[in-house]
Design brief:
The protein is mainly β. The chain is built from one helix and four strands; from the N terminus they run ββαββ. It has a four-stranded antiparallel sheet, with helices on one face.
Length: about 90
C-alpha cells in the first residue's frame, strides 16, 4: 500500500518574531504514545508498517529547522491525520 494524503494544506502566518508554517494532512496519523519519539533518528511510528521509509525524514527536518533558530512541533490523531508546525525567526 502506498501512502497518500487527502487535501494537504499549508497555512503561513507572520508573527511578532517569526514566520509560522502549519502543514496538515489527512493521512494515517500517529499514535499518541509515539509522538514524543517522532523526531528521533530511525524511529518509525508503530502504525507505519504500510508506509516505506527509514525514520530519518522528521529527524532531518528538525535538525534543519533548529539550525535556523526555529522549532517544529506536531499534533496528530491516529486515523485522522497530522499537523506539523514550524516556526522560524525573521532576521
Amino acid at each position: 500500500m502506498k501512502y497518500s494524503t487527502t487535501d494537504p494544506t499549508l497555512l503561513v502566518s507572520f508573527e511578532d518574531n517569526g514566520i509560522s508554517f502549519a502543514i496538515t494532512d489527512r493521512g494515517i496519523g500517529v499514535p499518541a504514545e509515539d509522538i514524543p519519539k517522532l523526531f528521533n533518528s530511525f524511529f518509525r511510528a508503530s502504525n507505519s508498517d504500510s508506509v516505506s521509509g527509514t525514520g530519518l525524514g522528521l529527524f532531518i527536518a528538525r535538525q534543519f529547522v533548529e539550525l535556523h533558530g526555529g522549532h517544529i512541533d506536531v499534533s496528530s490523531q491516529q486515523g485522522q491525520g497530522s499537523t506539523f508546525c514550524i516556526v522560524l525567526p525573521m532576521a
